[in-house]
Amino acid sequence: MVYYKKRAEYYIKKYKTRDPLTIAKELGIIVEFKNLSMDSPRGMFKKILGKKFIVINLSRITSSSELKMVLAHELGHTILHCNDSAFFLHDHTLYARGRFERETNLFAADLLIDMDTLDKHSIENFSINQLASFLDIPVELLKIKFKNM
Question: Where are the domains of the chain?
């Protein structure tokens, strides 16, 4: 089993939830919701003096499903890459920041999507948009999940 999948399953089991905000709070991560510039990212993770922060840019969030996805994605950064500075790596080395983003997207998909809630009939007979709506997640996250099953 892949590392990010194991980590998602560990936190789901430990905290008995798939809610990224609840898990972040249980881990002592400070989550702030701000109205920032439309040029700013939807979310960001920072570690300052040993404290972990997730900042969600509400100006760029258009739905509850997008909010959950961004929270889960940033939580993935705090769990999978908490000792790395993606900005430093991107700006000062040849290390690809894309790998970090891919891993955190996969973590978010595994955290938010419970495949046990979908039966074979649903998967075969409903569109991806219908399934995403049922699960209250963005379509792009469901595509990531199906692509990596």
Answer: 3-147
